[in-house]
Design brief:
Number of strands: 18
Strand order of the largest sheet: 4-14-13-12-9-5-8
Number of helices: 13
Bound molecules: 4'-deoxy-4'-aminopyridoxal-5'-phosphate
Radius of gyration: 22 Å
Distance between the termini: 24 Å
Strand content: 15-25%
Shape: globular
Length: 457
């Protein structure tokens, strides 16, 4: 039986009168009859306003690292509230949190705080331009780095014929100034030759290489260590700042983020989501000589930077992540989750692999994990797309788009979240198989042609 979304649907019709799409971030709009309004979240679960409860693997796109309404962090945030908010002056705690970050992430020699991932990456690019004196940058195909004009571009691989020059570059949004296109280049992940060629041709104008080595917005597709090393060397050779965007991976895949996992140091790195368990705060950090440009020519700051509530939440969250076994618990749960899902899929002969890290694993319907966005585009995500809504109906919330990994929080490991998820997963897979077979039958009767997905069913 389908869950009821009556109240959410009613809320949507009300909200759309005052809020474009009825929401406050475009990604939260899932269609007129599918947009969910939340009543509350606790631990690893969300309850919507219809009373449907979900084990949540979106975790707000990553901020939920410990779980919703974590009492340890919320208690610290309440103490932060007593401090008074924002003063257009600094507090002692900023140094304490910056010190903790530098200890956890060796590349973060100097730290500046912002409020969101977007702001942090925006600052990183500005610092890189100032340091190198070069205005252009490279983005990895399929990457997402926030909602500001310089990064709201994509390489349109789908409408490109290999061999016909570089893929066309398109804006992700109307309103992004077209003049910025000439400052933006793209490169596929894990292809150092491509990067080298791009740099050889354009290094006079390229000041930054923006990379998320585990692509938290692209199925967690992961860079090889050798690729990251080659990229680091190329950046050094051509005087390009390597900006490692750890907005999703930071303080999640390891205490020192993806840089710890892969054993390298960024020139500049950015952090946000997991650092305060959902309170709005972010970081741009990096090598001392580069970061000293801030205040020495480079503008950075903002009215709300280091709000006392967010800062106190960050201090507590980082302390927990650094000093307890929370990340080990998260990784362990992620592994068990993937093992359980794998068992279900293998028993039905469905080819699959998990991508990235168990704390934010991508589910890919092919035996070999994708190496870059082009591989993901070439894959068949029909099964995932059909399965996600079934999971929602069965009380498991994953992103409808398979490019978003499954985010695990510490609280998932409590209660019966794993058993509940795997039971729902098994059911959802069976329903999806049944539906797709049925659709295929109908399709074949109508067209006598073979849909792409059928080889896997
Ligand atoms: N960089 C990455 C890698 C992200 O995943 C995101 C958000 N999903 C951002 C930047 C932007 O962060 P925010 O939404 O906090 O502005």
């Amino acid at each position: 039986m389908r869950r009821s979304l009556d109240r959410s649907n009613k809320q949507f019709r009300k909200a759309i009168q005052r809020l474009p799409l009825g929401v406050s971030s475009n990604f939260r709009y899932w269609g007129e009859d599918k947009t969910i309004y939340v009543d509350h979240g606790k631990g690893g679960r969300i309850t919507d306003i219809d009373g449907n409860e979900y084990v949540d693997y979106r975790m707000g796109y990553g901020p939920g690292i410990l779980g919703y309404a974590d009492p340890r962090v919320d208690e610290a945030a309440r103490e932060g509230m007593q401090v008074g908010g924002v003063f257009a002056l600094s507090t002692e705690m900023e140094y304490e949190v910056a010190k903790r970050i530098s200890q956890m992430v060796p590349a973060a020699e100097l730290v500046r705080f912002s409020n969101s991932g977007t702001e942090a990456v925006m600052a990183a690019l500005r610092i890189a331009r100032a340091y190198t004196g070069k205005d252009s940058h490279i983005i990895v195909e399929g990457g997402y780095h926030g909602l500001f004009d310089s990064v709201l571009w994509y390489a349109d691989i789908e409408n490109w014929t290999p061999g016909s020059g570089d893929p066309p570059i398109e804006a992700e949004s109307e309103g992004v100034p077209q003049v910025l296109k000439k400052l933006t280049h793209f490169t596929p992940l894990n292809d150092a030759n491509y990067l080298e060629d791009l740099l050889k041709r354009n290094h006079q104008s390229i000041g930054a290489f923006l990379i998320e080595p585990m692509m938290g917005n692209c199925c967690s597709i992961t860079a090889d260590v050798a690729y990251v090393q080659a990229a680091t060397e190329l950046c050094e050779k051509y005087n390009v700042i390597m900006i490692v965007d750890e907005v999703k991976t930071g303080f999640r895949v390891a205490r020192g983020g993806v840089q710890e996992l892969m054993g390298f140091k960024a020139d500049i790195c950015t952090f946000a989501k997991a650092m305060a368990n959902g309170y709005p705060i972010s970081v741009v950090a990096g090598r001392e000589d580069i970061m000293r440009k801030v205040g020495d020519g480079v503008a950075h700051g903002g009215t709300y930077t280091c709000h006392s509530v967010s800062l106190a939440a960050a201090q507590k969250t980082l302390e927990i992540l650094d000093e307890t076994d929370a990340l080990e618990t998260i990784e362990g749960y992620g592994r068990n989750l993937q093992a359980g899902m794998s068992e279900v899929l293998s028993a039905r002969g469905i080819a699959h692999s998990f991508v990235g890290h168990p704390a934010m694993g991508g589910l890919f319907f092919n035996n070999t994990a994708p190496r870059n966005y082009r591989d993901w585009l070439d894959s068949d995500y029909t099964f995932y797309d059909a399965m996600a809504p079934e999971l929602h109906d069965l009380g498991v919330l994953c992103e409808p788009d398979s490019r978003e990994p499954w985010f695990v929080c510490e609280a998932h490991a409590k209660d019966d979240n794993l058993a509940k998820t795997l039971l729902a997963f098994e059911k959802a897979v069976d329903i999806t198989l049944h539906k797709l077979k049925h659709d295929k039958l109908k399709h074949n009767q109508q067209h006598q042609s073979v849909p792409r997905m059928e080889s896997k069913l």
